[in-house]
Design goal:
Blueprint: H1 5-15, H2 23-30, H3 34-46, E1 51-54, E2 58-61, H4 70-75, E3 86-89, H5 95-105, E4 113-116, E5 137-144, H6 157-176, E6 181-183, E7 187-190, E8 193-205, E9 208-219, H7 245-261, H8 265-275, E10 282-287, E11 290-299, E12 305-309, E13 312-316, E14 321-323, H9 327-334
Parallel strand pairs: 3-4
Antiparallel strand pairs: 1-2, 4-5, 5-9, 6-7, 7-8, 8-9, 10-11, 10-14, 11-12, 12-13
Length: 335
């Protein structure tokens, strides 16, 4: 017996979360009339399914229909992942800020993880805002206190961020099939636009590193209209098919745990170099208030960027670089 039209419409919207379909597209796909599509959408809404409609775009499943499910999330975590240290908040100012406050008030254990459906004051590097609308992304922070990780003789601040970026790349590819690229040092790009930011913050007391907090913001289903105007041409979302956020977050947390506890620096750096989009390209950066331009040649064993400027090789241990030339334009034309 053929499924009802509303069942078929629901499946299309569920399988393509974040994607708009016009009434005509749905009608053609399901071989029914546009009137039948409209009636099916109304019946689904009456049944409690939150379907958004936008002029000239069509219908899509509202992001709130993909709320994080704590039970589903914890069910898919590795056995060794500390589930009891994972907290999910409906709304919070910043997962990094909240984790730091709580740890200052009463010391928290290694790999405590805070996740939020929404951040009202999400932060990026150098105090920049990271937009974090509800139900559309993954926003979380985790705490590093393990003595082996914070060993001052082995610790490279850049490698902390490098490890997080590689873990995200691996988990996203494994869970969604989507291939991302990494921009030194802390951003992931997809289709020539930024989809992820990583913020690493440490606390030092009496000359010793007490903790490191790593914050991640990943745009999963964030619509272009949800970004501020100045970000709409440089930011994007994954928009993965057949993937819910709980399963994607579980895959990312699992990979992060393995990356920080089992994978070697050599293994991580190999992947980081292979996926890095700045190597071999002309970059611009500021050091000691002087603007430089040079060729990004390599990434060393500590995660620092090696740039050839004229006859000199400069080592960048922090800050940001900008890609010069028409890379962004060419990349978008290819897509």
């Amino acid at each position: 017996m053929r499924k009802k039209t509303e069942d078929l419409v629901e499946k299309v919207l569920m399988d393509h979360r974040g994607t708009y379909f016009s009434g005509q597209e749905l009608a053609d796909r399901l071989n029914v009339s546009r009137t039948a599509i409209w009636k099916a959408v109304e019946k689904l809404r009456e049944g409690g399914l939150d379907i958004e409609a936008m002029t000239k775009k069509g219908y899509r499943l509202a992001p709130s229909q993909d709320a994080l499910d704590e039970v589903e999330l914890k069910t898919h975590l590795l056995d060794q992942f500390p589930r009891e240290k994972l907290r999910i908040f409906e709304s919070i100012d910043s997962t990094n800020s909240a984790l730091a406050r709580d740890d200052d008030e009463s010391p928290l254990p290694h790999f405590t993880t805070y996740v939020a459906e929404e951040q009202t004051a999400g932060r990026g590097r150098t105090g920049r805002e990271f937009q974090s609308p509800a139900y559309s992304g993954l926003y979380f922070s985790f705490l590093l206190k393990d003595a082996a990780i914070l060993n001052p003789e082995k610790l490279s601040p850049q490698l902390i961020t490098v490890r997080a970026a590689v873990a995200l790349y691996l988990a996203i590819k494994r869970e969604t099939g989507i291939e991302t690229q990494i921009k030194w040092v802390n951003d992931l790009f997809y289709d020539g636009r930024k989809i992820t930011g990583i913020l690493t913050e440490g606390k030092i007391q009496q000359g010793r590193i007490q903790r490191i907090i790593v914050g991640v913001g990943l745009n999963v289903y964030t619509a272009k209209e949800q970004f501020k105007a100045e970000f709409q041409e440089i930011a994007a979302s994954l928009n993965p098919k057949n993937t819910n956020r709980s399963l994607l977050l579980a895959a990312i947390l699992n990979e992060l745990y393995l990356t920080f506890h089992q994978r070697s620096d050599e293994e991580i750096l190999k992947i980081y170099r292979e996926q890095n989009l700045v190597l071999g390209k002309t970059v611009e950066f500021t050091k000691n208030d002087i603007l430089y331009q040079g060729l990004a040649r390599d990434i060393n064993g500590e995660g620092n960027l090696l740039v050839t400027v004229g006859d000199e090789e400069m080592v960048l241990t922090g800050g940001e670089v900008s890609l010069k030339g028409d890379w962004y334009e060419r990349r978008r034309e290819e897509l």
